[in-house]
Amino acid sequence: MIRRVAIAPRARRDASKGEAQVPLDSLGRMVLVMGLVIALVGLGMILFGRVPFLGSLPGDLSFQLGNVRVYIPIVTSIVLSIILTIVLNVMFGRR
User: Fold this and answer.
1) How many domains would you assign to the chain?
2) How confident is the model over 6-22, as a mean pLDDT?
3) Based on the domain organization, do 38 and 67 belong to the same domain?
4) How many CA atoms lie within 13 A of 54 on its CB side?
């Protein structure tokens, strides 16, 4: 049984310069989607403000010497990574 596989169009090459050109319609869509994602993240930060348990988990390191404070959110980073991995796998599930 032979399966047909759709192949994405390749970037066009300019014969005179030898440079690859990306079609502007796909580039425009990508910039639009990235802008919407950034806007949604900003809106979420404004609406939700601060999440109470993030940044104060056991395992987050904080040092203060005089006027200098150093904060290293190790466990918070791990928790956010796990949550984002689950959410993105659900949204863009592997096929």
Assistant:
1) 2
2) 60
3) no
4) 11
Written as one string, the DSSP assignment of 13-49 is E-TTT--EE--HHHHHHHHHHHHHHHHHHHHHHHHH-
In this structure, the answer to whether residues 75 and 95 fall within a common structural domain is yes
For 44-80, how does the pLDDT look when each residue is reduced to its tens digit (9 = 90+)? 888 877 777 677 788 889 899 999 999 888 998 898 8
Q: Is the pTM of this model over 0.70?
A: no
CB 72 within 8 A of CB 61: yes
Do 31 and 50 form a contact (C-beta atoms < 8 A)? no
Domain of 31 in residue numbering reads as 13-49
Domain membership flag for residue 91: yes
